[in-house]
Design brief:
- The structure is a single chain.
- With 238 residues, the chain is an alpha+beta fold.
- Strands 3-4-10-12-11-7-8-5-9 form a nine-stranded antiparallel β-sheet. A three-stranded mixed β-sheet has the order 1-2-6, with no helix packed on it.
- The protein is globular, with a radius of gyration of 24 Å.
- The chain starts with a helix and ends in an 11-residue tail after the last strand.
- Monomer.
- It comes from Tachysurus vachellii (Darkbarbel catfish).
- Belongs to the HEBP family.
- This is Heme-binding protein 1.
Amino acid sequence: MSSTSRRLHITLSHYRTAFFSKMNYIVGAIVLLLSFTADARVGNSSEPTSYCTETPECLLFDLTCKGEEYEVRHYEATKWVTTDVESMFKDLAKIKGFRKLYKYITGENEAGVNIDMTAPVILKVKEEIPLLKKSVYSLSFLLPSAYQKQAPQPTDSTVYFTDMPDTTIYVKSFGGWSVSAVATIYANKLKEALDKAGATYNTDYHYDVGYNSPMKLMNRHNEVWYEAKGAPVCPPVE
């Protein structure tokens, strides 16, 4: 082999080695990224909190900061199953919506499969609802991790899928039963705290959030959520 051919062979070998090394790095990075994100949104109920214990899986989050008035959480994108109910009374809308979604997870879907219940259950509530006027309430169940990428289609045309984007949430927690009047009081308390802190948030709607079944009588946990807009503002630490 001539010296020119030898140099060409060495050069080609070098580029081949560099190419495959780079490809292995890219593939490894993708696999590593998927390993971090595959189970990061919905997972074991013991991971995120001590109060999400009644279902096999719960919505996971990263706690950004926490104070007496509220806490700030970061949630990754998730898929939910949702239904809308028009009603003059929020509590009645919640009951009707729950029945529809419960039928979906107990077999009323195109695959005829039972799907595990998760927590929390969230109710989207529009702001500034006139007294004794109907409003549309959207109730959602979080889909388990096994169905986050693909879930069986509902057989009820009023049940559909929604995607919650990667988002930051302002949260206020409270105990007891989350009846309409009580949830409204805590939503107003959270708004007052956010306004006092100079935080910006979505004022078109908020979420009433529940973690417990009707069978649990003590140590219940509820929340109200407002979506943050812009950089989140942490509460003062007391």
